[in-house]
Amino acid sequence: MPGYLPFAGALALPAYTCDNCGFWQRHFETPPHCPMCLDARHVVPQDGWRFWTEREAQARFPCHWEELEPGVWRFWNEPVSGIGPSAYLIQTPAGNMGFEACPVFSEAALQHIASLGGLKVLSSSHPHAYGALVQLQDRFDPELCLPAADFTWSAALQVSWPYDDFLEPLPGLELHRTAGHFDGHAVLFDRARKILFCGDALKFELDPGNPRRATTISAHKAFVRGVPLTTNELRRYRDVFAMLDFTQTWTPFEPAANCGRAEVLALIDGMLATRPHAAPVPLDSLR
Known about the structure:
alpha+beta, globular
């Protein structure tokens, strides 16, 4: 049953976040290293490991928030070290859903989330965007929905609703596993707003004069290392994206309001017709 914890000792341990990538671990002392930084999709710190407690991270990384569209809030840290993803809170008549997490939430940000009604459901696209999910789970005790394929990365969390390839945790909000970037990589589709929260399936460069307008689009197995996806991974992406009628595509970093399904499929089809690559493609060339 939801909320049943036969052994909750691990979740009582203090949590630490890595300065290099923002991944949180629960440990009885400062962790010796970060498994996310040691993964092939990332890089190790050049000058050694540094980890922060929740209060230390809150003091170092200011938290900001804004309502990007009616009922859709973004939370982010600036300045911040590490990967620095954004968190999204989506309000629905059935309750609020959190997707992704910023590196650390300030007390004021957590109080603002509480004022919006808290969180009924929480999820993320993949471990690079887990951020401070631990704070949200500790404070609001939502159902945590994560793909079973990425369960190995969730040691700091309590997954209450694992899923395989599809889950609709709240009416109109659909989780679809794409795999590719991570085995459990997933996207969130908001049917009513036609927004696809695409995780790291896609990457955009934004117009400096208009932070909601993307100028290029790309796809990667590993963005930092410039590694392309395989042909079969791109085919799976295409199968998922083709089912979803989205007109906006938001990553954990760039909420691109001017890119939808047509441009995303054109990018993928172009690579399937030649060979996969990780280079940014001008968005206008895909229209």
